Amino acid sequence: MTQIIKRLEAHVANQIAAGEVVQRPASLVKELLENAVDAGATEIALHIKEGGKLLVQVIDNGVGMSAQDAVLCFERHATSKLQTAEDLFKIQTKGFRGEALASIAAIAQVVMKTRTQESELGREIHIAAGKLEENIEVVTPVGTSFAVNNLFYNIPARRNFLKSKQVEQRHITDEFHRLALVHPGIKFSFFADGAPLFVLPSTSFNQRIVQIFGKKIQDKLVPVKEETPQLKISGFVLKPESAKKSKGTQFFFVNQRFIKSNSLHFAVVNAFEGLIANGVHPGYFLQIEVDPQTIDINIHPTKTEIKFEDEHTLYAILRSAIKHSLGQFNVAPVLDFERDPNLDNSYDTLKKPAPIPHISVDASFNPFEIQETPNSLKQSSHKPQSSYASKNTFYQKPSSWESLYSNIAHDSNEMNVLEPSDAFNKLSQGSNDLYAEESHMQAGFFDAQMPSKSTHNCFQLGRKYLVSSTKSGLLVIHQSRAHQRVLYERFLTNFTHQEAASQQLLFPKELSFTIPEIMRLKELMSPLHSLGFNMEIKDNQTLSISGIPIVLQEKDVSQVIQDFLSTYEAGHLGDHFSQTDILAKALAKSMAIKTGDVLELPEQLNLIDELFACKEFLTSPFGKSVMTNLQQTDLDLKFL
After folding, report:
1. Whose CA is closest to 614, among 626, 624, 630?
2. Paired strand residues for 44
3. Which of 175, 200, 225 lies at the terminal end of a domain, its last residue?
4. Alpha helices (runs of H) in 302-372, residue ranges in sequence order
5. Which residue among 159, 178, 200 closes a domain?
């Protein structure tokens, strides 16, 4: 029988390993920065070009490597951080597998320069596609410079999967933040295409947060500190008013390693119970120190997921520590809003008897007495009157009970809005009565603007649906999803033609954002301009808005921008078309009318007309149903 199992060649095995280690340029940044930290560096500089696709270079002033180690570090499973299998259960360093450099060298062109303190000269090594091309002595500073050029140059299929420059740079920035936050004692620098993005001098943990996210976050930090025999917790949570729909400021560090944990995140969310609304996430920067033997960090290739020996205890301690900090710094609510203030008495009145209430009644008052002459009104001004009524008050007996309701004013905000029970009661009486009553309610308000009675075949149900009669039954439209569809197609058109109507604000509106959020807004500035936003960025933390789309109200600008950023960041960004599509969907979702918004009849009819003018009016931009048709035969079955 022929042999069918063969040993893979070294370069093939390295390329397979690279599939786990290197997914995009951000993976390179993570591995190289962690190696620099493990080398004991006090200054680390990161340089990238074209989002890391052309160059990723990390320069540190760590201990460096000898000539022998400089070559050996590119071998598979070669590491200085593990000696025995028992070392896996007491890991204190970042990298330990010994596959990172070998995998990187297999899919890129690598140039490494390194020198130790004891050596006068260093080594420069060139490797391409896993093959050593050059190994020479050079003059270089103490430490290591690791430059990775042309990522995936020998695997074109993998290179085609890389995203745009802006997207890849954003992922690199995220990895840079994660490592810079947990090592505030190290000076970090970040340069993109030669321009400095971050220069972070050595400082404390809270000041490092301020350096990255801006000075305005400093007043929002609430310190958290707890120490038990099992673990030690330190760090900060953001005040409840800073909670957002996105997860941009959630950082967990376990033994100075960034991790993602749904369980720990839920512990923080539960600690904020009653302080934040549903659907939003609190921000936090928390460091947890535990015994390395009680965790397993070798369960995921990226090492961002770990397994805890006693996760329930950690959950309870973390939740309790955050609750204690929120209460200690007067962030938790201390007012009892269910208490009746009328029952509160001062201490000096507790022993006094309660006064007997006195009520004065005009026994001679007759509400049905008819005063035909108004002259008595003048006489009544010279006589004392009761607090309730006076017999001299002019009162005219109504001619019939119907006139008691003739002058009742209707709230214009509730006009043409029916709750579910009211709507079906009206429908059961016939559509003609319903439309006649709508016309009567609006009389005197929009006499000139209202359309004729023949067009009054629409009403709002539960402030969520638009119901219109058809020849065969009822058409029920979801108002929010319908508006999303209308805005989505309008925005796509604006992107194509690069023009949109804009309304100028009398005074520019300034909004504060974190530095990472400002970086994302810079990427989207051009498409936002095409939608009607006129804005500029000031001092890297403030967005000044002077013009907004005509479909947007000024009071909603801040919330729309925040919702838009959250939705856009959650999207899977691809090519230019995919980014445009996600941008249009995000803005449509943010700016669409919501469930609970009251629509007057002209607005209802206009929305229906715009919906049926869309190319695809049956589903929302997110694939959800917009309308349903209730046939008369379906209604007849309800009454069998």
Report:
1. 626
2. 60, 188
3. 200
4. 311-328
5. 200
Residue 500 lies in a domain: yes
- The whole-number pLDDT of residue 577 equals 54
pLDDT of amino acid 381? 44
237 and 168 within one domain: no
| pLDDT tens for each residue of 422-448 | 444 444 444 444 344 444 444 443 333
Q: What number of other Cβ atoms are within 10 A of residue 180's Cβ?
A: 22
User: Are 124 and 265 within one domain?
Assistant: no
Q: What's the CATH code of the domain at 516? A: 3.30.1370.100
Rounded-to-5 percentages of helix, strand, coil across the chain? 40, 20, 40
223 in a structural domain: yes
Closest by alpha carbon to 290, among 272, 328, 264?
264
In angstroms, the CA 315 to CA 322 distance is 11
CA gap 196, 175 in Å, rounded: 16
Q: Convert the pLDDT of each residue in 234-285 to its tens digit.
A: 999 999 988 887 777 899 999 998 998 888 999 999 999 888 888 788 999 9
DSSP E strand stretches across 292-428: 295-296, 307-308, 417-418
Report the length, in residues, of the chain: 640
Q: For residue 169, which of 495, 514, 522 has the smallest C-alpha distance?
A: 522
**Which structural domain, as residue segments, surrounds residue 40?**
10-200
Q: Under a CB-based contact definition with an 8 Å cutoff, are residues 66 and 119 in contact?
A: yes
> Are 218 and 118 part of one and the same domain?
no
469 found inside a domain? no
Taking the C-alpha atoms of residue 489 and residue 593, their distance in angstroms, rounded to an integer, is 15
Using CA atoms, how far residue 148 sits from 161, 173, 234, in Å, is 18, 17, 36
3-state SS, residue 244: strand
Fill in the amino acid letter for 402. Answer: E
Written as six digits, the tokens of 637 are: 């079955």
590: in domain: yes
- Most confident among 187-201, 380-394, 456-470 (mean pLDDT): 187-201
- CA dist 498 and 85 (Å) reads 61
User: Which pTM value belongs to this model?
Assistant: 0.67
| Alpha carbons 577 and 520: distance in angstroms, whole number | 18
Separation of CA 560 from chain center: 11
- What is the domain count for the chain? 3
- Spatial distance between the Cα atoms of 429 and 439, rounded to a whole number of angstroms: 16
Q: What is the overall mean pLDDT for the chain?
A: 78
Residues 174, 307, single domain; the answer is no
Which are the contacts of 58, defined by CB distance < 8 A and separation ≥ 6?
29, 32, 33, 35, 36, 44, 45, 46, 47, 145, 146
